[in-house]
Amino acid sequence: MLISLHWFIFLLNLPVATWNIYRYIMVPSGNMGVFDPTEIHNRGQLKSHMKEAMIKLGFHLLCFFMYLYSMILALIND
């Protein structure tokens, strides 16, 4: 996005990319991934993971329709 000078889209995606990198870096060394399979069913963790997943889903849906609109606009203008 930086090479093609789409600054608005880059700035829109920067917080989510930063959050994903932060989550990946903060995984404890003994865990296999971000979500520990042995503790995922803990009520507090499950609720927070579901909340995070819904926020990311909403963000990605917003981005999808924004990109779709941009593509249609570019095709019409050609």
Automatic annotation (TrEMBL):
Keywords per UniProt: Membrane, Transmembrane, Transmembrane helix
- MF GO annotations: CCR5 chemokine receptor binding
Entry's localization field:
Membrane
* UniProt superkingdom: Eukaryota
The yes or no answer to whether the keyword Magnesium is present is no
Q: Please report the record's description of how this protein sits within the membrane.
A: Multi-pass membrane protein
Sequence similarity: Belongs to the cornichon family.
PANTHER family, A to Z = CORNICHON-RELATED (PTHR12290)
Can you name this protein?
A: Protein cornichon homolog 4
Native species of this protein?
A: Geospiza fortis (Medium ground-finch)
Q: Which gene encodes it?
A: CNIH4
